[in-house]
Amino acid sequence: MEKAKEELENVILSREGNVATITLNRPQALNAVSPGLIRDLTEAVRKVAKDENIRAVILTGAGRSFCAGGDIDEDVSQVCKMKPDEYIKYVKWFYEPFKGIVGMEKPVIAAIRGHAIGGGLDLAVACDIRIASQGARLGNAYVRMGIVPELGQSYFLPRLVGIGRAKLLTFTGDFITAEEAERIGLVEKVVPEEELDKTARDLAERLAKGPTKTIAMTKMAINKSLSMDFESSSDYCWRLNLSLLQTEDHHEAFTAFLEKRQPTFKGF
């Protein structure tokens, strides 16, 4: 299986087969969010999104943490000094990799160990699927700084855990265990620490072997349905299927069903 690895200053981008892994690489700072990390993460996300050979993505952190939130020296303390126009420009730039993850036509799996706090939780909820290791801690730290979650958490959190639980987590700033996160729907699976990477990898490879266009359009359909009514969502899905009915993967799936065998998808 072909492997490739590209090391940016704050992010490692590796490719193996049809799966890409983006690793936040500031372990000495628990992968806290800094301008440099955002710059490199934006570049990595854009590269993966454009790479037609990549059919599934894993987002994780080096060392013992997924992402511990904003870096106090390089991010949080700088925001406090900004004028309103400077802050808006700054946060819109920070928003780019989050928008790229959500808009990417590929499934993105967050593999969470250690902490996913504040901006780290923003990153996790922007992904399509979250797998956490036992011992992981997740939480909202924005209220502790006297500000509102600003990078998508206010949008995704209530849709994942419900309005009441989202308010409880954001109002209190309490951290919860991986097991509690799974119970309330914040993560989809909890596994032992030593199984996290393999579990995420196995799922990514399974999705990469699936009908790529169908998974991409299903992601689009679900994301867009969050701002649609029932009829609009249904109409949108019908239109997506009009194009999917013309794909080789659809014809392969139908033929394999008739022939009572497993389909072999090519991704187009």
Spatial order of strands in the largest sheet: 1-2-3-4-5-7-10
Helix-strand pattern: EEEHEHHEEHEEHHEHEHHHH
Overall geometry comes to globular
- Mean pLDDT, to the nearest integer, reads 94
Written overview of the protein:
This protein is an alpha/beta fold. It is built from eleven helices and ten strands. It has a seven-stranded mixed beta sheet, sandwiched between helices. It has a three-stranded mixed beta sheet with strand order 6-8-9. Helix 1 runs parallel beside helix 3 (about 85-105) and helix 9 (about 210-225) packs antiparallel against helix 10 (about 230-245). The longest helix is centred in the middle third of the chain and has 20 residues, at about 85-105. The chain is globular and about 65 Å long. It starts with a strand and ends in a 10-residue tail after the last helix.
Write the layout of secondary structure elements.
Blueprint: E1 3-7, E2 11-16, E3 19-24, H1 35-50, E4 56-61, H2 72-79, H3 84-103, E5 108-112, E6 115-117, H4 119-126, E7 129-133, E8 137-139, H5 153-161, H6 163-172, E9 175-177, H7 178-184, E10 189-191, H8 196-208, H9 212-225, H10 230-244, H11 248-258
Parallel strand pairs: 3-4, 4-5, 5-7, 6-8, 7-10
Antiparallel strand pairs: 1-2, 2-3, 8-9
Helix pairs in contact: 1-3, 4-5, 5-6, 9-10
